[in-house]
Design a protein that fits this description.
Layout lengths: L1 E4 L2 E4 L11 H15 L3 E2 L5 E2 L13 E7 L18 E6 L7 E5 L5 E5 L3 E10 L4 E2 L2 E2 L8 H5 L5 E3 L3 H8 L6 E6 L7 E5 L6 E8 L2 E4 L2 E3 L2 H10 L3 E2 L4 E2 L3 E2 L3
């Protein structure tokens, strides 16, 4: 065997020496092996397993519109979403295959299809992921409430009553007395019912882009519309000319 000492080397008898292991090298190798073994999860058999992939984060659907329910709706299929009258919803999709139904999400995070004619858009969110809803209901950035809710304190607004009920109420009124009610055939629109000379009259008022349309005329508000027809006839024929005189007493 050869021996190296102080930079000098030479031959020597092997029975005059004993071989030892350098502990510093053993320690270094042990640390290296430990690092290698910790590069994965141990499966109990000593072999390393890779770390599980992180769970993908759920993305929030874009909010297209903020709406309010004009009527209550009870779901009849698992794909539909039930809601109460006056409940606020986020619209997250307009299914191309069925334009009469929109995909909505309620304040509890439940999603489903809702009939478009049962809801009214109160503001658009331009496809952001910021919901219209908060844990307490309508958020502060969602716009204005529905037309009906704005009229609830007006003496002439009778809310959700049908044409037959309006006729019954007007039967005891005087010519020109009137009431405003929610449209039966077009949720979101309104109707004016008034006492006529021979029979009652009913006029449809459509809400389009913040304007109220009756016939060929449009008005910024129902109060403005009513004021106009107190001095201009809302109906005119060869036998009668009708003006809105005063709200029917409740």
């Amino acid at each position: 065997m050869t021996l190296q000492r102080n930079g000098q080397s030479g031959w020597f008898p092997s029975n005059y020496v004993e071989e030892t292991v350098d502990n510093s090298l053993q320690k270094e190798n042990g640390v290296h092996e430990k690092i290698q073994s910790n590069n994965g999860c141990n499966n109990g058999s000593g072999s390393a397993m890779p770390y599980p992939s992180p769970t993908p984060m759920l993305t929030t659907s874009s909010v297209l519109e903020c709406v309010i329910a004009l009527y209550a709706f009870e779901a009849s299929t698992p794909e539909e979403l039930s809601f109460r009258k006056g409940e606020k919803l986020d619209i997250v999709d307009h299914p191309a295959h069925d334009p009469d139904w929109w995909q909505a999400r309620n304040s509890r995070g439940q999603e489903g299809l809702v009939p478009k004619n049962y809801i009214e858009v109160v503001s658009t969110n331009e496809g952001t992921t910021i919901p219209c809803l908060s844990s307490t209901g309508w958020s502060t950035s969602t716009g204005t409430p529905s037309v009906g809710s704005q009229l609830s304190r007006e003496p002439w607004y009778f809310g959700r009553i049908g044409r037959d009920e309006a006729d019954r109420l007007l039967s005891s009124g005087r010519e020109g007395e009137f009431l405003v009610r929610d449209s039966e055939s077009n949720p979101g629109d309104l109707s004016i019912s008034m006492r006529g000379v021979e029979r009652n009259k009913h006029f449809k008022v459509q809400s389009v882009d913040g304007q109220l349309h009756i016939g060929s005329r449009s008005f910024p508000s129902m109060a403005t519309l009513i004021q106009h027809y107190t001095t201009n006839p809302i109906f005119s024929s060869t036998t009668e000319k009708l003006y809105l005189t005063r709200p029917l007493p409740k």
